[in-house]
Amino acid sequence: MATLLIKNIKTLVLASDEANSLICGAEMNQIPCINDAYVLVEDDKIKDWGKMEEVPQAAEETIDATGRLVLPTWCDSHTHLVFAASRESEFEDRIRGLSYQEIAAKGGGILNSAKRLQNTSFDNLLAQAKIRLDEVIRMGTGAIEIKSGYGLTVEAELKMLRVIKALKASSPIPIKASFLGAHAFPMEYKSNPDAYVDLIINEMLPQIAEENLADYVDAFCEKGFFSVEQTARILKAAAKFGLQPKIHTNQFNCMGGIQMAVEHGAISVDHLEVLNEEEIACLLDSNTIPTLLPSAPFFLNDHYPPARKMIDAGLGVALATDFNPGSTPSGRMALVLSLACIKMRMLPKEAICAATLNAAFALELAEQLGSISRGKLANLIITKPVPSLAYLPYAFGSDWIEQVILSGVRY
Ligand code: NIG
Ligand code: FE
């Protein structure tokens, strides 16, 4: 039995043994924070926490966190971390004036990534993904979701999901896999897109289920990509294999994707750069978690989701990176928090709540992660000496993480 005591913590963030439901609306700004606190870790779990006046006598190892904050690690509930190559030439195209959709229509974008991934070996993809995973863990991510969707053939989608499965086996943090075969229509299906939907349903899904390669199903429900009807067909077929949806919708257009996803019991709907009143009402009436990815509109120079309006209406939102080579070449959750505050008027505590506990719910990992609670996994961020909690999203260019603890062990 190994014990680790972190003492003299300036502020212990999100310490609660009752963190067992999504935090919504005004409560997001009331997350429990304790000054002058300790956390006791036993093996891989949080054993105890409290005020310094009740600190336990001794532990095998002690960290003095004077002047530092301790918070739960980030849960990054939406990434495309497995990919074959970066796409900075499209970055230049956009600077010159082309839009993300125009680049995609020319066969760039997702199709460009798919061509590259199809021609890249399993070993090469795995090696690249391990480097990215290591990078995001150092930036405080303690659980992550990774999507397929750069394969777009039966063989390449399976290869990508097998890479995620191999990552899961060696990863020090929990990983969830989402099958995103419906990410874009391959060129050869442009004149008959429904035939690609058939391929997803009849060929891809059964093999993925057989090899147990996915935890969720995803689709890019958007104009020029998958229609609401096509997405609904895929979600219906996936449900037969026990895969619940987490879907991309409302990135550029409101077209009924949210209502359809809610009807299919989606765990989350992600992006929501455009969102109308009817959709907010629909989400309020559901268990589906709206997940906002502000690094994507930052990178695409697009507009941001109406987070302030959503939280004021009573919704509980999650935040994630969307790490991918096309719209968000960044897995940095700290930047997501800063953008949430600066561009979406979320308060610092709301942003931390959205990136930890609420995001853990969006990955169905909240029983193990997302807060400082007795019995949860000891995945913790220890900051450098900082003046306050609000300093974290404020100091958007600073590297304020001093140490990351995973399952009770320093990373
Ligand atoms: O979430 N919008 C769809 N998929 C990704 C981008 C994929 C790409 O451009 O490679 C996203 O932004
Ligand atoms: Fe995405």
Reconstruct the topology from this structure.
Layout: E1 3-13, E2 33-42, E3 45-51, E4 61-64, E5 69-72, E6 74-76, H1 88-95, H2 100-105, H3 110-118, H4 122-138, E7 141-147, H5 154-170, E8 175-182, H6 193-210, E9 216-221, H7 228-239, E10 244-249, H8 257-263, E11 268-271, H9 277-284, E12 289-292, H10 295-300, H11 307-312, E13 318-319, H12 333-344, H13 348-355, H14 357-362, E14 380-383, H15 391-394, E15 401-406, E16 409-410
Parallel strand pairs: 1-4, 1-5, 6-7, 7-8, 8-9, 9-10, 10-11, 11-12, 12-13
Antiparallel strand pairs: 1-2, 2-3, 5-14, 14-15, 15-16
The structure holds N-(iminomethyl)-L-glutamic acid and fe (iii) ion.
If you had to describe this structure to a student in words, what would you say it looks like?
This protein is an alpha/beta fold and 411 residues long. It folds into 2 domains: 112 residues, Urease, subunit C, domain 1 (Roll), CATH 2.30.40.10; 288 residues, TIM Barrel. It has 15 helices and 16 strands. α5 links the parallel β7 and β8. The relative contact order is 0.17.
Task: Tell me briefly what this model is.
By secondary structure, the protein is α/β, with parallel strands linked by helices. Helices cover 35% and strands 21% of the residues. A hairpin with a 2-residue loop joins strand 2 and strand 3.
